[in-house]
Amino acid sequence: QVQLVESGGGLVQAGVSLRLSCAASGRTFSSYAMGWFRQAPGKEREFVSAINWSGDNKYYADSVKGRFTISRDNAKNTVYLQMNSLKPEDTAVYYCAADKTTAQAMSVMPPDYWGQGTQVTVSS
Questions:
Q1: Is the per-residue pLDDT at 28 higher than 90?
Q2: Which of 34, 36, 50, 113 has the fewest CB atoms below 10 angstroms from its CB?
Q3: How far apart are CA 108 and CA 54, in angstroms?
């Protein structure tokens, strides 16, 4: 089992950058694919990005491709989401997720483990 704690959210203006972090507990972090999802007010939770256990396979939603970058540091049990050129439509609660699967599978199937979420608000 793995526990996830997100940090780095906040209120920012459109066009700036923000980096989210997700710290995971457990000794088997490196065996998990990690991902980020988000849920905007009144909308369903949606996939944002995922990365496989080694970090060499990454997937992105079309809405964030070219602006967001996912990475991981297995030595620190941490996954990151670098968000550049933020837009008001990126406003949402961002959730970190983990599963013993592939990054590609995580983009289409709900992961097993979730963090509590961190709020990102982008003003225009």
A1: no
A2: 113
A3: 20
Beta strands 10-13 and 4-7, pairing class: unpaired
pLDDT of residue 29: 84
Are 95 and 117 in contact by the 8 Å Cβ rule? The answer is yes
List of residues 6+ apart from 81 with CB closer than 8 A: 19, 20, 22, 36, 48, 49, 68, 69, 70, 94
**50 neighbors 106 (Cβ within 8 angstroms):** yes
How many residues are listed for the chain in this entry? 124
Please state the rounded mean pLDDT for residues 26-31: 82
Comparing CA positions, the residue from 32, 39, 13 lying closest to residue 123 is: 13
pLDDT confidence of residue 26 = 77
Strand partners, 36: 49, 96
pLDDT of residue 49 exceeding 90:
yes
